[in-house]
Amino acid sequence: MKKMDKATEQAKELVAQMTLEEAASQLYYISPAIERLGIPAYNWWNEALHGVARAGTATMFPQAIAMAAMFDDELLGKMAETTGIEARAKYNIQSRYGDRDLYKGITMWSPNINIFRDPRWGRGHETYGEDPYLTSRLGTAFVRGLQGDGEYMLAAACAKHFAVHSGPENIRHSFDAKCTLKDMNETYLPAFQALIEDAKVEGVMGCYNRINGEPGCASDTLMGKLKEWDFDGYFTSDAWAVRDFYQGHHVCEDKEHAAALALSKGCDTNCGDTYPCLMDAYRKGLITEEEIRTAAIHLFRTRFRLGLFDENNGFENLGLDDVATPEHRAVSLECAEKGMVLLKNNGILPLDKSKLKSIAVIGPNADSIDALRGNYYGTSAHMVTFLDGIREESGEDVKIYYSEGCHLFKNRVEHLAEPNDRLAEALAMAGKADVTILCLGLDANIEGEEGDEGNAFAGGDKLSLELPESQRILLDKVLATGKPVILVLAAGSSLNPHAEKAEAILQAWYPGECGGTALANILFGKVSPSGKLPVTFYESTDALPDFTDYSMTGRTYRYLSGNVLYPFGFGLTYSTVSLSGMAFDDGKVSVTIANNGKFDTDEVVQVYVKDIESPYEVSNYRLCGFERVSLKAGEDKTISLPLDKNTFTLVNDAGERVPGSGKYRLWAGVSQPDVLSESLSGVPCLNMDILGS
Questions:
Q1: 413 lies in the same domain as 450
Q2: Same domain, yes or no, for 554 and 586?
Q3: Most C-beta atoms within 10 A of its C-beta, which of 139, 224, 385, 618?
């Protein structure tokens, strides 16, 4: 039997002193004070997807998908630790003023470790991409950084949305995701298991939809997995998800039965409006006193683990001067620089300022704050747009022309004007300048969460991979000038801009408060780009399965056949590298990587595996190791990469993880080992066959 920790003992003691009504009141996300026991009010809902969100000033880091593109769990962990420090500091400040409102606690409902299985999903940019292993590595780093390793947690992370949840947004409150046991255990659950078993994540949030008929916040299957993984934190519903039991899914007849179902299955706290009726459900005999008190114990165990009842918890001196500091801003800049992905470069980059007299910066995302922040964002003390960064780095000797060019998605900028009312200005500037930097893409107003975004067409999801029509017109016309064009895409998901005539294409994502500085540093060669795509960029959605189909067949790099514009794991630098000396020993792959170019750069060495004989292997291969390496021009390094613990196991059709055949092929490179990736990168992958177990 597992030994009870100190926090559990303290929680049991405290809950035992409560009346049943008091204990039940604590299961609502807005937990009221119990003054006679010295318990202050507490609001469980806070967000920290890429910095402390929705609670005033905080350092804003790049959106999660942009940080996934870093392929750097160490830096991601540093970002999360920085976020934890700011969350604790803001909690201290606000608590001293008696402010215990929404978004003021230190139970942070992040990270989002759902698998970005379909490029149409509006919330995909909140995730770490399409690969279970990459998501597990990065999610684990986030949790460890945010929670810390001291006597008390710095802040509490929460793995969401458990599980098999990735759109469509507009039917999420009634949708039933049908999922095979193989797909569930091979793709949708590994990251949750890793965060629970390896990172000891304190919270888990259920999802809105049903999974094979069971509501995500009251699933015997999923709750059974938590027990199997020895989860001992707290479980919360997503916002108003329990209400969906009777209004959307119709698995319950009313509010009381919905509350009883959720609580009895293990949902400790309700974000929404259902749990205030728990005592009514109790009086009707739908739930027991033990169920109420057990949930309360889980919640207070978390509060004790955070040191919220200890005035000398080690974090009491964190305050205003620990928020939005220059040091934290430097981390945001580094993340933005390492996350941007160079998709194409015909030699125009990096730009040489000494050879330029003028630059046209054009597009609806050129001077846009929204293009920097994605969703679930805080308020930065200093935002640098793409235009700001380019203007500052260009200096006084280079003339900057700026035009919005077009609206992000409407056919005109000024409401009373004719369509394409900024086009003439943009074309005049593009025709006069030496080079045009065209800043297009999306923002969270048109790709995001249902209810949060302004996209009335698909509830936050994308209808296709095309740019909005206003931007397509602008792009085609600017490219037709014949002048050099560098296309900068701000978006949280894959797009196909049909920009074959562009000299260079850079995926900037939603790069945070220093996005403009990071972009300029890359464009002008202060920093070599080094990000890699954490998702496949598809040619079209036409060849994809239906959005509501949760089968992995035909999805992501592991199961795709064709339809690839830019592959998962791909990204160029300003240098050229080669690999040699691949070897395997004791669960590690070693390889020598040499920088043969003239630029200092980072590269990401990637290792993929395929079981040669097992029928349970994925269609193509799987990422099983990666490491970011910094190389000076002319430098070489030999690195040793430990492989994923599941490298030599597979998931069978019954959802069981079983040993592989013992015969495997390993690849090491700076991309996937496919023809397109090797052609685009110019770097062939090494490979070897091994016998493993």
A1: yes
A2: no
A3: 139
- Range of the structural domain that residue 674 is part of: 577-691
Residue 224 burial (C-beta neighbours within 10 Å; 0-12, 13-18, 19+): exposed
Model pLDDT for residues 571-615, shown as the tens digit of each residue:
999 999 999 999 999 999 999 999 999 999 999 999 999 999 999
- Neighbouring C-alpha atoms within 13 Å toward the C-beta of 65: 35
Supply the DSSP string of 205-263, one letter for each residue. EE-SSEETTEETTS-HHHHHHHHHTT--SEEEPPTTTTTHHHHTS-SSSSHHHHHHHHH
- Which pair of tokens denotes residue 689? 């066959």
643: CATH? 2.60.40.10
**Count of domains in the chain?**
3
> In terms of Cα–Cα distance, which of 252, 247, 243, 239 is closest to 207?
239
Query: Using CA atoms, how far apart are residues 449 and 26, in angstroms rounded to an integer?
Result: 28
pLDDT tens digits, 326-382: 999 999 999 999 999 999 999 999 999 999 999 999 999 999 999 999 999 999 999
Q: Are 313 and 392 found together in one domain?
A: no
Quick one: which H or E segment has residue 578?
strand 577-585
Q: Which two tokens stand for residue 499?
A: 């920009």
pTM above 0.90, yes or no: yes
Task: Give the type of residue at 487.
Answer: L
- Residue 458: pLDDT band with limits 50, 70, 90: low
587 and 620 both lie in a single domain: yes
Distance separating alpha carbons of residues 504 and 376, to the nearest angstrom:
30
Interval 303-322: pLDDT, tens: 999 999 999 999 999 999 99
Euclidean distance between CA atoms 254 and 260, whole angstroms = 10
- For residues 301 and 9, what is the distance between their CA atoms, to the nearest angstrom? 8
CA distances from 493 to 68, 120, 338 (A): 12, 8, 17
Catalytic positions are 238, 447
Whether residue 229 is found in the same domain as residue 110: yes
Report yes or no on 229 lying in a domain.
yes
What is the maximal distance between C-alpha atoms in the chain? 80
Specify whether 426 is located in the same domain as 547: yes
Q: Is residue 327 part of a domain?
A: no
DSSP helix/strand/coil, 364 = coil
Q: What is the DSSP letter of 184?
A: I
Contact 194/112 with Cβ under 8 angstroms? Answer: no
Token pair 């999922």: residue? 179
529: CB partners within 8 A, 6+ apart = 340, 341, 342, 506, 522, 571, 572, 573, 574
Helices and strands in the chain: count of H runs, count of E runs:
20, 25
Domain CATH code at residue 414: 3.40.50.1700
611 shares a domain with 521: no
Residue 572 belongs to a domain: no
Residue 118 lies in a domain: yes
